[in-house]
Amino acid sequence: LGYVLMDDASEVFPTFSHPGTEFIYMLEGEMEYRHGNHTYSLKPGDTLVFEGEVPHGPEKLLEVPIRLLSVFNYGGKGQG
User: Fold this and answer.
1) Cα angle at 60 between 25 and 52, to 5 degrees?
2) Is the distance from CB of 49 to CB of 21 less than 8 angstroms?
3) What are phi and psi of 16, to 5 degrees?
4) Cis peptide before 14 (omega within 30 of 0)
5) In sequence order, what E strands does 1-80 have?
6) 12 falls in which pLDDT band (50, 70, 90)?
């Protein structure tokens, strides 16, 4: 579980790629989020679940500050 704060609309973010599944829950702000070839508009209360191996990350920060929760599930034995 991670808490993410982004407050600089001019900041450029790298794309990420990792094993497992990721869940994002928007708490505040508005942004465009890229997953592969798709872009999603996220506002407070929105959620997004996706495969982490596909390149993903913030595309454009539309209303800052942005606060979100990010939860990873890497799968595999012995992980909960």
Assistant:
1) 50
2) yes
3) -115, 155
4) no
5) 2-6, 21-35, 38-42, 47-51, 56-73
6) confident
Task: Kindly compute the dihedral angle of the four CA atoms of residues 78, 51, 68, 16, in this order, to the nearest 10 degrees.
Answer: 100
Q: How confident is the model at residue 76 (pLDDT cuts 50, 70, 90)?
A: low
How many CB atoms are located within 10 Å of the residue 66 CB? 22
CA distances from residue 46 to 26, 28, 67, 75, 76 in whole angstroms, order as listed: 6, 10, 12, 24, 27
pTM: 0.87
Distance of CA 74 to the CA centre of its chain: 15
Report the length, in residues, of the chain.
80
- Tell me the CB-side half-sphere exposure of residue 74, using CA atoms within 13 A: 8
Q: Which residue has the higher pLDDT, 66 or 13?
A: 66
